[in-house]
Amino acid sequence: MVTLSEVQALLGEPRFNWSDPAPWIELERELGIEFPADFREIVDVYGSIEINGQLYLSHPAGHLLHSLGRSIKEDLELWRDEDMVEFLPSPVGGNPGELMPVATAMTGEAVFLRVPDDPSSPWRVVVQEFDSPAWTLYEMTFSEWLLAYLKGRDVTLCSRNFAPGGPFYEFLP
Fold it and tell me: Exposed, middle or buried: residue 90 (CB in 10 Å: 0-12, 13-18, 19+)?
């Protein structure tokens, strides 16, 4: 299992370090799910950020422009539209087997966490290429997927082009 220190070694020291669980509790109650611990941990320490000038992560306590709750609700509405259903391997939502949109990329990809069929099973990552009907299921946890991305591995997003000097992040304005 990937640890936060492995992500920090590549991405750099976090400066957000959120500790109040209230925004997560409220969002999880609204969505009817409990996000995986590794996703929460990474978002809690980094906050709403842009990684490699490409990948956008938001925190539930983020301001209006970069709020995880707001972006999830907007993305759920988008992906439930009948014209968009064909672009994903399963419906969006919080039920087992459904996809929860959690991140986007300026290059047009959407990153989803797949709700496990069984509560004891791990969450998986699905990346959808917005400009095509292509999607990829990664048999990885969010932290494993993010670490692979930071190492420049092919996890649908192409980070090498955006971070030739190594991974970096900036807070979202």
Answer: middle
Angle formed at CA 52 by CA 134 and CA 159, multiple of 5 degrees: 45
Q: What is the pTM of this model?
A: 0.94
What per-residue confidence (pLDDT) applies to 1?
Answer: 74
- CA distances (Å), origin 29, targets 60, 74, 86: 12, 17, 28
Provide the 3-class DSSP secondary structure of residue 138.
Answer: strand
Instruction: Answer left, alpha or beta for residue 10, where phi above 0 means left and psi between -120 and 50 means alpha.
Output: alpha
* Chain-centroid distance, C-alpha 87: 18
Question: Amino acid letter at 89?
Answer: P
Give pLDDT tens digits for 59-83.
Answer: 999 776 789 999 999 999 999 998 8
The HSE-up count of residue 72 (CA atoms within 13 Å, CB side) is: 25
User: Rounded distance, CA 133 to CA 121, Å?
Assistant: 27
Residues forming a β-bridge with 138: 125
Sequence-separated (6 or more) residues with CB below 8 Å from residue 87: 79, 128, 130, 133, 135
